[in-house]
Amino acid sequence: MQLNENQKMIRQMARDFARAKIAPVAAKLDHSGEFPEANVREMGQLGFLGMVVPEQYGGLGGDITSYALVVEEISAVCGSHGLTVAAHNSLGCWPLVELGTEEQKQRFLPPAAAGESLLSFGLTEAGAGSDAGGTRTTAVRDGDHWVLNGTKMWITNSHYAGAIVITAKTDPEAEGSHGISAFIVPTDTPGFTVEKKEDKLGMRASDTAPLTLEDVRIPADLLLGEEGEGFKYFMMTLDGGRISIAAVALGLAEGAYRTALAYAKERVQFGKPIASFQAVEFMLADMATQIQASRQLTYEACRLKDCGEPYAQMAAMAKLHSSETAMFVTDKAIQILGGYGYTREYPVERMYRDAKLCTIGEGTSEIQRMVIGRYELSQ
Ligand code: COS
Description:
A hairpin with a 2-residue loop joins strand 9 and strand 10 (272-273). The strands form 3 sheets. This protein has a 4-stranded mixed beta sheet. A 4-stranded antiparallel beta sheet has the order 2-3-7-6, with helices on one face. Strands 9-10 form a two-stranded antiparallel ribbon. It is of the alpha+beta class. The mean pLDDT is 97. It contains 10 helices and 10 strands. It is globular. The protein has helices at residues 5-32, 37-46, 64-75, 79-99, 102-113, 230-266, 278-306, 312-337, 348-358, 365-377, and strands at residues 118-122, 138-142, 145-156, 161-169, 180-186, 192-194, 208-219, 223-224, 268-269, 272-273. Coenzyme a persulfide binds at residues 91, 121, 123-124, 130, 132-133, 177, 231-232, 235-236, 238-239, 312, 361-363, 367, 370-371.
C-alpha cells in the first residue's frame, strides 16, 4: 500500500521516539515489570494516545493506517509500550468515540488523548474468555443509578485508567450474549478496585490486572449506547482492536528480524558471516516473506476500515497471520543468534515472550479462525 506524506511523517515520528526513548529502557522495564509512566506521558504529548480521537476532543483524529503505523513502530522496539498504546486507543477510546454521547466524549476523551489518564476495556471474566457472552457481572437499575457487581480479568492499563468501559448483564432473563450492556465506570467510584498486577511471561511492562466491583453505583448517564446492546458493541470494538494487535505483532516480528539480519551479517563462523550459509539465508528469506504477508493483511484491514467498508474478517486474518508470524520470526531470530539469542543481552528473547500474547489477547488464534470461517461459510 502506498503511504501518503502524513502517514510517512507520523511513522517517522514514532520510529524516532521509539529508538530515542523506548529502546534505552525496554529491557530494564521488562525485567522489573515496571509500567513506563514517563514515556506514556510523552506519548500523550506527541498525540499517540489520541490517534483515534477526533481533533475537537483533543486527539489527532488520524486514520487507522497512521495509528497502526505508530503501534507497529513502537512495538518493533518494545511490545509492552505498543500494547499500552494499542489497548488505550482501540479498546478504551474507540467505543467512546463511536458510541458516546456528546457529554461523555467531552468528559472522558480529552484527558485520555492527552495521556493524563488512560481509558481501558473490561470484558473478560474468569468464566467469559473466548465465550465472551458468558458475562456474569451484573448491573441493576436503582433510580437514576446503576449498581454493578462482579469481577473482570486481564484488564490492560487498568491501574492507570481514569475510566474503564465494562460489560455487565442488565437483563438476567436474557440468554447467552443477550441482555448485556456497556457502562463507563470511573475508576475512583467507591466499590471499584483494581487488584494486583499480573506477573506475566511477556509484555511485562504492560499493566494487566483483575478488577473487583462491589456495589459500584454509577449515574445512569454513564450507560454507553443502548441498553442490552453491550455484547455487539464489544464485538465491534474487538474487530478494530484486532487490527492493532496485528500491528503489535507485525512490529515485534520486524524488530526481531532486524536484529537477526544485522547479527547474521556480522557474526563470523567457519571463516564467513553466518548469513552467507544457506541454512541461515533461507531462514531470513522465510522470515521476510511472512512479515511482508502480515504487513499486506494488516494494511489492507486498515484501508478497509478507513474507507468505511466491512473489515472484521480482514482484521481477524491480519491478527491471526501477524501473531503467528511474530511467533515464527522471533523463534527463528533466537535460533540465528544461538546462545546470545537465549540471553537478555539481545532483545529477541523478550520479543519472543511478548509475541506469545498476540496469539491469545483480543481473541485467540482459534477464535480468529472461527470468525474467519464463519464469514466464509456465510457467503
Ligand atoms: N459485530 C457486531 N455484532 C456482532 C459481531 C461483530 N463483530 N459478532 C457477533 N455479533 C452479534 C451477532 O450478530 C449476534 O447478534 P443477534 O443475537 O442479534 O443475532 C450476537 O452478536 C451474538 O453473536 P454470536 O452468536 O456469533 O456470538 P457467539 O457467542 O457465538 O460468539 C465469538 C462469537 C466467538 C466470535 C465471540 O464470542 C468472540 O469474538 N469471542 C472472543 C472474545 C475475545 O476476543 N476475548 C478477548 C478479549 S481481550 S480484550
